[in-house]
Structure formats: structure tokens, C-alpha cells
Design goal:
The complex is a heterodimer of chains A (317) and B (239). Chain A is of the alpha+beta class and 317 residues long. Chain A contains ten helices and 13 strands. Chain A is 33% helix and 15% strand. In chain A, strands 11-2-13-12 form a four-stranded mixed sheet. A two-stranded parallel sheet of chain A has the order 1-9. Chain A starts with a helix and ends with a strand. Mean pLDDT of chain A is 90; it is low at 1-12. In chain B, the strands form three sheets. In chain B, strands 1-7-6 form a three-stranded mixed sheet, with no helix packed on it. The chains are: A alpha+beta (317), B mainly alpha (239). Bound molecules: iron/sulfur cluster (2 copies). Chain A: This is Fe-S-cluster-containing hydrogenase component 1.
């Protein structure tokens, strides 16, 4: 295209080779731009994939804490309809907010816990966990006697419990007052609420799993696949921030059953515990069971040296 | 060619610009929400109140909150003994303790089932070295008795246990021993608690061993090598 010009004025205009160069540069640029565009398309292709599983409304939904009351109602109606469509179950999704003047705290009597795992199962059912993987927010760790270092224990024990040379340490989210999981979340999809419960907005979580890596108690779980729950087994009493069925690719965790506890009820794992090892309550209430335990028993917290300040205590009789 | 290239390039630049803009405006929004915690709190409260009124129409919002009770389960009464056979009329049934014990002399020394030759044989008794009549009432076999001789009904069995197990009774009173269900918040609903003999057999009170049932498919902290061998051995046994 520009070659004729170059030929006509070979020496007088030094700009001409640049003109020729320009075309070459343009070609190179175009090449790179095409490459770039191609790379961009490739990069967002997972998003396009995701969009197939995501309604436009879901994609456009903003952060839970920024939703107005009407928007929340819309979102919840949409989620209920989706549960009906995908799981064939009629559910009610509440928006349970903290009760003013409460700070929830859990305690477990390790002298009594015998590792039978009924709490693990109760959590599984209550919170609509994936049936295939037997997912649960609780791990009961069989521990050698003489240490409180949870990394020395194992969850793979079976058979008759308790074993003579062991004790049993149930671990779930400790609802830390200084939660490292919250600090690392790049999109603020997880945060601590006024009653101490650390929650996740499953619709805001991008599934980067930083929080899972940051949690020293291994309390977070990632949904590797779509949770499978038969319609008849879906727990219909749900809440936006707790046990509604989570989408694939997001992180979830124990919420102290906020859909129960913010309605005054005891957590599911506590009710299921046949040994009575579990105690739950409001630490701001002077007369609560939990206060009496903290004042009268030998109380431990896990990994105290990390400064996470758990709202979860272990005691011995 | 160059125009197309430039257009493409401009398009990419615009897209990046737009992404940047969205990201910054979102951050600003978020900071706004942090700046107005009152607004968040008021939403929280209104949500809570509406919930309360929905589930509990009874007016409890005033300062004086009437509390629901903590119900401790109780045995329904003295145990009844199922008859093994049938009577001449072919009836089965159960009898009260007093049906037999009213006409029998109590043996105050008896401490085990092994020395019994007619009834209650084969019973496991593993509760220290106390005698039957430490707890059962020789004068009224349909009730129990305390160490000082006071009669106590079967329904009040916890009073009896608490004589020796005062530590556990104290913990129980503070919710630190014994299972429960219902509500932690007694202004919203009652709480039900087990009594001693729901979990402990009074004649062999050690908490029974259990079998682990439910297990998540979770290899967290898999056992060390030697325990792997052990597992292998176990699974071989099954074959
Ligand atoms: S236990 Fe883990 S998930 Fe729970 S608040 Fe602490 S760091 Fe976060
Ligand atoms: S409190 Fe609820 S969510 Fe948390 S471990 Fe127990 S059952 Fe699971």
C-alpha cells in the first residue's frame, strides 16, 4: 500500500521509512491485539461457562450487606424458586439477623465426649450437606492423651469408642474474634456479625479458597461439586446466611446454626449429642450456663498462641 | 487493517477501564456501608423484631419477659415388672414391686444379683459396693429412700443420685452435664433436659461404649504409617 510513496522519494524524506514501519507496526499491533482478544476470550470462558449455570439476576446480585429490604425479598424468593426447581423441595429461606445483646459461645466437655460422631451426622442433615461426600462442618478428632495439639490427632478412627488411650476433640468453626479467614477474603464475601458468628455470602464468594487456607482450625469447606440432597431429605427451615443449599464452587462453614440459634433454639449438633458434652449460650448473659463454665471449669482454647480469640471453649470436669 | 487493529485495541482499553471503574465504585459503596453502622444495625433490629412477631404472637417485647420453663424429664413412676408367663386365664401383664415385696423380708445385706435365688437374677450390678437397700426402700418398695431414711418417689430419682454425685448435680444445674434440647433462650421457648437415668443405668451407671456410625469422606490427619498397617489388618479380617 505505502510502497509507491517510498519509491518516489527515496532520500529526501526520512519519515517515509517510518511510514512503512508504521504499517508493519500496525500489523504487529493488530496481531497482538488479536492475540490479546483471543486470550481475553479464553480467560473469560469459565465465566461464560458459569453464566450458563447462573441466571442474569443472580449474576447481577450485589453484596448481602448492601441489599435493601425489597432486594433481599426478591433474592430470597428467587433462591426459594431455584431450590424448588433444582431440588424439588419447598423451602423457606429466612433472613435471620443477630439478636441485639447476644454473643454466641460454644463449649464442649472433653471429659464426656466419647467420639461417637452423632453431632457430625446432625450437622450433615441440618445444614443440607452433600449426601455423597457425607460433608459436615464438624470433625471429631481422636487425640492421643496428653496434648491439645489438634494436628496430632486423626479423624479416621472407627469401631467402638471411646478407646482407652484416647480422648476426642470435636472441631468446627470457632467463630474467632480475630478471624484470619475474614482478613484474607479479597472480595469481603465473609465477615463477622454482631453476635460473633462469622458468615459467608455464598452469592458473593468467588471460590478462591484463601479463607480455607487461612483458617488454622481447618473449619472451612469447599463445594467441589453441586451438593446432592434428595428432595425428601432437604431441611426446609433455611436461612440466607446459613443452611440454604450452597452453589457449587463456593466456601461454606459452621454458622452456629444461625437459622436456629437466632430464633432462640439450640444448635443441631448440641441436641444430637447423646453424652451431653455440648453447651451453647450467650456469653453476655451473666447467668448463662456458659458463664458458669468459664468461671468454674478448667477451660482451654485451641491454638491460643495464634491470637484468633475463638468463641469456642473446651473444658474438663 | 490498522483501523481494525486500533478499534480492537481501543475496545480492550475501554473494557479494562470499565472494569477498573466498577471495581473502584464498588469499593466506595462498601466504605459507605461501613460508615453507617447505625443503618445496618437498624435493619438488623427491624428484621429481628419482624421475625419475633411472626413466630410468637404473644407480646414479649416489653421489659418484663416471662420465661419459658426448663423441663427436666422424669421417670413416669415406679418401675413395673413384666411377667414372663401367663396366668391361668391366659393374661400377661406387669406387676408393681410391692406385689411381691410386701410379703417378703428385705435382706438389708444383699449387694449383688449373684446371691439372689428367685428374682432379679442375671442383673448386672456395677455401682460401687452399695447394697440394694441403700437406694431402694425396704418399707415401701414402690419408692426409694435417701441415706437419712427419707422416702423419695421414683420420679425424684435425681435427688437420690445427687447425694453422692454432687459435683455432677452442680454441673447439671448449670447445663454443664447432661443432654438437652429446645431453646437456649428461655424467653422464646422452653428447654428440655434429660435426667440421670436417661443416660445412666442406675445399676451399672458407667456411660456405655458406642459404635461410630456416620463418617464424612474426609482424610483429614490420616493416621501415621503404623496405623495404616493396622487398618490393613482389620480389612483383611473382614474378608
Ligand atoms: S475457625 Fe476458621 S473459619 Fe472459623 S472464624 Fe476462625 S478462622 Fe474463620
Ligand atoms: S452449630 Fe450448626 S452449623 Fe455449626 S457445627 Fe453445629 S450443626 Fe453444624
Amino acid at each position: 500500500m505505502t510502497s509507491t510513496e517510498t519509491d518516489s522519494t527515496p532520500s529526501s524524506k526520512p519519515s517515509l521509512p517510518i511510514v512503512e514501519n508504521f504499517s508493519r507496526r500496525a500489523a504487529v499491533k493488530a496481531g497482538f491485539a488479536t492475540l490479546g482478544a483471543g486470550a481475553f476470550v479464553a480467560a473469560i470462558s469459565p465465566l461464560r461457562q458459569a453464566a450458563k449455570n447462573t441466571s442474569a439476576a443472580e449474576f447481577m446480585q450485589t453484596h448481602y450487606t448492601e441489599l435493601s429490604t425489597e432486594q433481599k425479598a426478591d433474592v430470597i424468593a428467587r433462591l426459594e424458586a431455584e431450590t424448588k426447581e433444582k431440588y424439588g423441595a419447598d423451602v423457606t429461606i429466612g433472613d435471620d439477623r443477630p439478636i441485639p445483646g447476644t454473643k454466641f459461645v460454644y463449649a464442649i466437655n472433653l471429659s464426656v465426649c466419647n467420639g461417637n460422631g452423632k453431632c457430625v451426622e446432625a450437622c450433615h442433615k441440618e445444614n443440607n450437606h452433600d449426601r455423597d461426600t457425607n460433608q459436615s462442618y464438624i470433625r471429631v478428632i481422636e487425640m492421643p492423651k496428653g496434648t491439645m495439639d489438634m494436628e496430632q490427632g486423626s479423624t479416621t478412627y472407627t469401631g467402638v469408642v471411646p478407646k482407652d488411650d484416647k480422648f476426642y476433640l470435636p472441631v468446627q468453626c470457632q467463630q474467632c474474634d480475630e478471624p484470619p479467614c475474614v482478613d484474607v477474603c479479597p472480595v469481603k464475601a465473609t465477615w463477622k456479625e454482631e453476635d460473633g458468628i462469622v458468615v459467608v455470602d455464598y452469592n458473593w464468594c468467588i471460590g478462591c479458597r484463601y479463607c480455607e487456607a487461612a483458617c488454622p482450625y481447618h473449619a472451612r469447606r469447599f463445594n467441589w461439586k453441586k451438593p446432592e440432597v434428595p428432595a425428601a431429605e432437604v431441611n426446609p427451615d433455611q436461612s440466607y446466611l446459613s443452611n440454604r443449599i450452597r452453589p457449587v464452587g463456593v466456601v461454606e462453614k459452621c454458622t452456629y446454626c444461625l437459622h436456629r440459634t437466632r430464633r432462640g433454639k439450640l444448635p443441631a449438633c448440641l441436641e444430637a449429642c447423646p453424652t451431653g458434652a455440648r453447651v451453647f449460650g450467650n456469653i453476655l448473659d451473666k447467668d448463662s450456663n456458659i458463664r458458669w463454665i468459664l468461671e468454674n471449669k478448667r477451660v482451654y482454647i485451641l491454638k491460643e498462641e495464634l491470637g484468633t480469640k475463638p468463641a469456642f471453649f473446651y473444658y474438663f470436669d | 487493517m490498522s483501523r481494525i487493529a486500533n478499534l480492537l485495541f481501543a475496545g480492550v482499553v475501554c473494557l479494562i477501564g470499565a472494569m477498573f471503574f466498577v471495581a473502584t465504585s464498588r469499593t466506595a459503596l462498601r466504605e459507605d456501608s461501613h460508615a453507617t453502622p447505625d443503618a445496618v444495625a437498624s435493619v438488623a433490629q427491624s428484621g429481628d423484631v419482624s421475625f419475633q412477631s411472626a413466630s410468637e404472637p404473644a407480646a414479649k417485647s416489653d421489659g418484663e419477659q416471662e420465661a419459658y420453663p426448663t423441663v427436666i424429664r422424669k421417670p413416669s413412676g415406679p418401675p413395673r415388672i413384666e411377667l414372663a408367663g401367663t396366668d391361668p386365664q391366659g393374661r400377661t401383664g406387669s406387676v408393681a414391686c410391692s406385689t411381691c415385696h410386701r410379703v417378703r423380708q428385705p435382706n438389708l445385706d444383699n449387694k449383688t444379683a449373684a446371691t439372689l435365688d428367685e428374682f432379679h437374677q442375671g442383673m448386672t450390678f456395677s455401682h460401687g459396693s452399695i447394697a440394694c437397700y441403700s437406694c431402694h426402700n425396704p418399707d415401701d418398695s414402690d419408692s426409694l429412700r435417701l441415706a437419712d431414711g427419707t422416702l423419695v418417689a421414683y420420679q425424684e430419682v435425681m435427688t437420690l443420685c445427687s447425694q453422692c454425685h454432687s459435683k455432677q448435680a452442680e454441673s447439671f444445674a448449670h447445663g454443664a452435664h447432661g443432654g438437652m434440647n429446645g431453646h437456649w433462650d428461655l424467653t422464646r421457648g422452653p428447654q428440655m433436659k434429660n435426667n440421670c437415668i436417661d443416660c445412666h443405668d442406675p445399676h451399672a451407671p458407667a456411660y456405655p461404649k458406642m459404635i461410630v456410625g456416620f463418617k464424612p469422606k474426609d482424610r483429614f490427619n490420616a493416621p501415621l504409617d503404623h496405623s495404616h498397617d493396622h487398618e490393613g489388618a482389620e480389612s483383611h479380617d473382614e474378608h
